[in-house]
Design goal:
It is built from 7 helices and 7 strands. It has a single domain (5-230), classed as LmbE-like (Rossmann fold), CATH 3.40.50.10320. By secondary structure, it is of the alpha/beta class. α1 (15-29) runs antiparallel to α6 and α4 packs across α5. The protein has a 7-stranded mixed beta sheet.
């Protein structure tokens, strides 16, 4: 099996954790590498616990705490963490921000990019992140003339599962068996106390998706799984 290089792009610093920490852990255990890139810290819209527990809380302190949490959580599944700190609610992707995202994709040369769905009626930042990744991936890999632009091989591209899949036009067509690393995912989720209410939800979801993966594949050893939607066609030499 070829080791993969994975780039996970989230609108906020913890988005990767709930939706793809298991996939990251499996990739790393198989000899691959993973980078988590957050476009913002989610300091305004994703950090309710941090604001409630401290009446003198500041934006900069929330960013610092969320950076530390995300970095530690990413470490539990073997990923590097970085954040562009673009601000959230709303997340705004300027031309400079898009160019920085393109530069990172060119630098990382990922085999696979994971990000949000194109629609999310409950979060205004997630579709913005999807659109930014869509544009940056095209400009880094396909648009322009090779002699005039640096280009990379087009990475495979997936959306990870949103919180409300049935309302976000998410159609899972790829299930990753995360059973061997589920303990790492749980350990990583427990770091993110700023959104601790999501831990039970995503533990249960991993079990439910494991059930779906077993029924689809007949692989009875799958206890936990993460679901993704592949966004580009497969190109193969045989079925």
């Amino acid at each position: 099996m070829n080791a993969k290089k994975l780039l996970v792009v989230g609108a906020h610093s913890a988005d990767f954790l709930w939706r793809s920490a298991g996939t990251i852990g499996v990739t790393v255990e198989q000899g691959g590498t993973a980078t988590v890139l957050a476009l913002s810290y989610g300091e305004r819209g994703e950090s309710g616990n941090l604001w409630r527990e401290n009446p003198d809380q500041t934006v900069e302190n929330v960013k610092r705490i969320r950076h530390e949490m995300a970095e530690e959580a990413a470490g539990h599944v073997g990923a590097d963490f970085r954040c562009l700190d673009l601000g959230d609610y709303p997340l705004v992707m300027t031309d400079d921000a898009i160019n920085e995202l393109i530069r990172i994709i060119l630098e990382e040369k990922p085999d696979v990019i994971l990000t949000h769905t194109a629609k999310d009626p409950f979060n205004p930042d997630h579709p913005v992140a999807y659109q930014a990744v869509e544009r940056a991936r095209l400009l880094a890999s396909g648009a322009g003339v090779a002699s005039a632009f640096s280009r990379i091989t087009p990475p495979d591209w997936y959306s990870f599962e949103p919180h409300q899949p049935e309302l976000s036009e998410f159609y899972p067509n790829t299930f990753i068996d995360i059973t061997p690393v589920m303990d790492k995912k749980i350990k990583a989720m427990n770091v993110m106390s700023a959104q601790g209410y999501l831990i039970d939800y995503y533990t249960e979801l991993a079990s439910r998706r494991g059930n779906h993966a077993r029924r689809i594949s007949g692989k009875n050893g799958v206890k936990f799984a993460e679901a993704h939607q592949r966004l580009v066609p497969w190109v193969v030499d045989r079925l």
